[in-house]
């Protein structure tokens, strides 16, 4: 069986684990490399469009000579004065295809939203809020806000499945 060469456009361990677990569960043989790729959007995207664009740019910028690359981006957007966390993914292939998908969205308490509006990144706010460190690398904001029922890796795992499923259906 051919071994796919895949790039994941982040060094964040929640994202890397999410991608490698999906391939493991699918029993796909992959050679996975984690690369720092520019999102070319703000460190803290503030709309669905900007978050999606960050995922797309990461995937394209991580591709290099790999078979395909996956970009995952977290962001926030506002509906009726409530800030929601949103999560986007993109898969870019060597033959020029681009596949996108989005994942879970959950409202952020006003206390957290206020920090974001004043320009602090969510990762920093969450660590202060929960009095822990490196939350973005494991349970994530979503883990804190769901009382541990859904962590960041599981949430991104779902996004990765949405990407790989479309890629597979498309006749990888
Ligand atoms: O190294 P990268 O891949 O950039 O990983 P990251 O943790 O910074 O993740 P993103 O850039 O995709 O997320 C954009 C911002 O939102 C924060 N963020 C998003 N989702 C989060 C979560 O579930 N928990 C904590 N921080 C989160 C993150 O720290 C960034 O400030
Ligand atoms: Mg980031």
UniProtKB/TrEMBL annotation:
<keyword id="KW-0460">Magnesium</keyword>
<keyword id="KW-0547">Nucleotide-binding</keyword>
<keyword id="KW-0464">Manganese</keyword>
<dbReference type="Pfam" id="PF01931">
    <property type="entry name" value="NTPase_I-T"/>
</dbReference>
<keyword id="KW-0479">Metal-binding</keyword>
<keyword id="KW-0378">Hydrolase</keyword>
<protein>
    <recommendedName>
        <fullName>inosine/xanthosine triphosphatase</fullName>
        <ecNumber>3.6.1.73</ecNumber>
    </recommendedName>
</protein>
<dbReference type="InterPro" id="IPR029001">
    <property type="entry name" value="ITPase-like_fam"/>
</dbReference>
<dbReference type="InterPro" id="IPR050299">
    <property type="entry name" value="YjjX_NTPase"/>
</dbReference>
<keyword id="KW-0546">Nucleotide metabolism</keyword>
<dbReference type="InterPro" id="IPR026533">
    <property type="entry name" value="NTPase/PRRC1"/>
</dbReference>
<feature type="domain" description="Non-canonical purine NTP phosphatase/PRRC1">
    <location>
        <begin position="9"/>
        <end position="161"/>
    </location>
</feature>
């Amino acid at each position: 069986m051919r071994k796919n060469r895949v790039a994941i456009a982040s060094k964040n361990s929640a994202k890397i684990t999410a991608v490698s677990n999906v391939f493991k569960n699918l029993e796909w043989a992959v050679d996975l490399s984690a690369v720092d790729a520019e999102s070319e959007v703000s460190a803290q995207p503030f709309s669905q469009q900007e978050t999606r664009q960050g995922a797309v740019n990461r995937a394209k910028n991580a591709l290099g000579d790999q078979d395909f690359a996956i970009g995952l981006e977290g962001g926030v957007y506002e509906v009726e004065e409530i800030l929601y966390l949103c999560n986007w993914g993109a898969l870019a292939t060597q033959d020029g295809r681009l596949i996108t998908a989005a994942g879970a969205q959950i409202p952020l308490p006003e206390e957290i939203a206020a920090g974001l509006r004043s320009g602090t990144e969510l990762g920093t706010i969450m660590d202060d809020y929960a009095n822990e460190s490196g939350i973005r690398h494991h349970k994530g904001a979503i883990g804190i806000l769901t009382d541990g029922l859904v962590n960041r890796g599981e949430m991104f795992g779902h996004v990765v499945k949405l990407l790989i499923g479309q890629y597979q259906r498309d006749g990888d």
